[in-house]
Structures are given as structure tokens and as C-alpha cells.
Design a protein that fits this description.
mainly alpha, 86 residues, elongated, transmembrane, 3 helices, membrane
Length: 86
């Protein structure tokens, strides 16, 4: 199923994002992996509902959208942490 590839792409993106982000603004390994999985699966699912992705088959566009969603949600959470000082 394509949703599993989106999920694991988001997890791996969150894990890699956590390695390069400074410690004072990172979410931690589990937080980054969770935000990546949520962002990646969410964006790819919305694109699937909109008809941009093929039904029931693996697509590289789905992986790219999952990567973009994972990076976007992780960057948004880091911006929030920087702006609030937490």
C-alpha cells in the first residue's frame, strides 16, 4: 500500500531532520519522527484525494510529497520553538 511508503518516508525524514537541527530547537527523535510521519502522510493523502497521485500503486510523486510534508511540518515546529523561546 502506498500509505505505508508515505508513513515510513515521513519517519525517516524526521529522523534525518533531527540530526541536522541544533539541540535547542529540536523536538527530539520521537517528536521529529512523529511530526514527519504526520506531515508526510497528511500531505500525500490530501494530494491523493485531489487526484494527483495514482490509485493503489507506488509513485515517486507520492514519496516526494511525503518528503515535502515531513520537512514542512518539522520546519514549522522549529519556527514555533524559535519564536516562543521554548
Amino acid at each position: 500500500m502506498d500509505i505505508l511508503s508515505w508513513f515510513f518516508t515521513g519517519i525517516l525524514t524526521g529522523l534525518m531532520f533531527n540530526v541536522v537541527v541544533p539541540q535547542r530547537i529540536m523536538l527530539g527523535f520521537l517528536g521529529s519522527m512523529g511530526a514527519g510521519a504526520l506531515g508526510g502522510t497528511g500531505l500525500a493523502f490530501i494530494a491523493s484525494l485531489a487526484g494527483l497521485l495514482p490509485e493503489g500503486e507506488f509513485s515517486q510523486l507520492g514519496i516526494a510529497l511525503a518528503f515535502a510534508g515531513a520537512m514542512g511540518l518539522n520546519m514549522l515546529s522549529c519556527i514555533f520553538r524559535l519564536s516562543t523561546g521554548r
